[in-house]
Structures are given as C-alpha cells and as structure tokens.
Amino acid sequence: MNGRTGMTDEQQAQERRIAAWRGAERILGHRPESLGERLARLAADAPAVYDLGEPTDIYGNGVVEAVERRVAELLGLPAAAFFPTGTMAQQVALRCWAGRTGNPVVALHPLAHPEVHERGALSALTGLRTVHPTRTPRLPTADEVRDLDEPFGTLMLELPLRDAGFVLPSWEELTAVVEAARERDAVVHLDGARLWECTGHFGRPLPEIAGLADSVYVSFYKSLGGISGAALAGPDALVEEAKTWRHRYGGQLFQQWPAALAALAGLRDERPRLPGYVAHAKVVAKALRDALGAAPWSRLHPEVPQTHQFQVWLPYPPQVLDEAGLLQAEETKTALFRRWWEPGVPGLSTTEVTVAGPDVERWTAAAVAEAVGDFLERVDRVARAEQG
Q1: Which domains does the chain have, with CATH numbers?
Q2: Which of 64, 141, 179, 249 has the smallest count of CB within 10 Å of its CB?
Q3: Where would I find the Aromatic amino acid beta-eliminating lyase/threonine aldolase domain in this sequence (predicted)?
Q4: Residues 15-33 pLDDT 10s
C-alpha cells in the first residue's frame, strides 16, 4: 500500500499504464476511453441503429430483442438469447445440452475458456464434467475426438482458441471434427466469442460456419467494441430453455439498453472492418517478426496470424518488458505492446497483439520496424538497470 495515495502498488501501476496509453499519439490496438468518451460515442452511434423514441427495455424486451434478432439473422440460426456475460451463456448452453443428451460430460480443450478463466464454475454450478481430446495447443483433430476413451454428450470448440495463440483449424479439419462428434452421438457447441473475424480464414460466410454446430455463443465486446454482453444462438427450443436458465442464473436484468445499443453499433460498424484488420495483421506480424529477429529466442505465434490477434514471445521477465513499453509510450507517444506475462518458463514472457482501431493504417511495416527498434533499446536499458 502506498501511503501517499491510499492505493496499492498495482493500482498505481494500472493508473500509469492507462495514462500512458491515453496519452499516446499512435497505438497498436484500441485506446482506453474515459467514461465521458464512451458515453459520447454511444450517444453518437445509437440513433443509427435503433429508434431512440422507443421505450427502454424491461427484462429483455425492446432493444434487447432487436439484438437477438440481428444475431440470429447474421448467424443464419433460428433464434438467439442475449446474456450479460459469455460465461453465463456458455454454462447455460452446456447445461441444456447435457439435459437433452443425458450425458453430463463435455469434451473441450484444456485451454478453453471454461477451464482457464471461470474458476471451475462449470462443474461447481452445473455438475458437468470435462474431458480433453488433446493437450496440444491447437484444436483437436477428428481422430482425437473419435478415439476419446469415454462417452461425452457435447463437444465444445473455441474458435479461435485464444490461449493457444488465437489459432484455428482449416475448414476441412473443422468439418471433420464436427463429423467425428456426430459419429459419437454428441452435439457440437461453438465458443465463438471471436467468431466474427474467422470468416476470412475459413473462406466461408458466418451462417455456413455457425451451421456446423448445434449452438453458438458470440461476444459483443471482444472484437466488436461493445460495452458487455453476449448471445447464445441455436434452435428455438434450446434458446427458450436457455432464457429460463438465464433468469435462474440472475441474468434477467431489468435494463440492458447501453450494452444492447453498443452491440448493435458494433455489429453495424466494427464487424465490417474485421476483414481489413485481419489482412493488416499479416503485414504487422511480418514487420514485427523481421524487426524482432535481432532479439534471440523471439517468436510470433502463429507466425502468420489467422485472425487479427496473435502472440509475441520474448526472452525477458515480464516486469522488464512492461517497463520498457511504458517508457516508450510516455517518452515517444507510441504504444506498441500492452501487458506481458510469464507462461510458466522463467525469463520468458508473452503478450497478445491486436491489430484494430482507428490507428491501424498508420502501422505500416516501416512504422512497426521503427517502433520495435525503439522498444528493444528500452528493453536493453531496463534489463541492465535491473541487473545493477
């Protein structure tokens, strides 16, 4: 605790990070917004996506129903239900499928969101059990699903698999995996939090991708710039049951119009920009890879991005890389990398890069190379200072 401000060291570090990024003139990714800026953006976007003369939503009607209809239309599925969080949406989906199949076992990757980011909620709240077709950091293959040594009722596929580096299978691999699940009499649920940006990789429209599965979850803030919220889409009967469980889980909120309006704006404005972000991510990644070549043991994963997000790995402790990035943002007004973390190997750190936002076209290959060179100079300076 810092006595001067009453804040912890971590809180002060967070304030410094936000100030550095907000003060930067060129950012790789999205700039943090103040409450006033976010409210102003919502007010500017909302009139084009919904009639603001309509009453506010009450317990899921009105603008919330408009979001549900739009998602079902975009995915080519019969119905959709708005949820306050993706965690709730997916737990409800898996719970409903377990009831229908009579099998409480869910096959999924150990790096999937329910296993890594939900504090064991799937088993604690639903009584479901998980099994893993593979531990390799990629989506499972058809043979791995086919050869899993116990029955399962649902196969959950996260597209892309974020914690493995935003990786995707090929279209042929994906369809084969779905067919393998069908052979096992299992249903297929897609964790499509970032499904919106996968169309280019698969070379297929959203309805064809979503149509492979029995249900699909999508997020409104991870790629679309929304405030919060998610949707679960699928057959009418499943969605109606999901709404019942949504109420039981406490997700039947009195009003959700800010999140719903932001979701509609993201679907209208940001979704069409995603293919451009994905294409430019390949330009940025190549420039990063070339510029980081001077750093031993550096790595991009995947080397050619499959979406507009990917990982960068460098052989330094996270605190060194964090400090170098902050100094770069503060001193040059260029913000290249965000937070770094240690993936279990001492002295090796990774970060996630998102190629998106209004600054994206300013990140030419030459601009990336210049920024990386400047960043590495600061890394060397910080590392030497830490060594005394």
Answers
A1: 9-31+273-386 (3.90.1150.10), 57-254 (3.40.640.10)
A2: 179
A3: 63-291
A4: 999 999 999 999 999 999 9
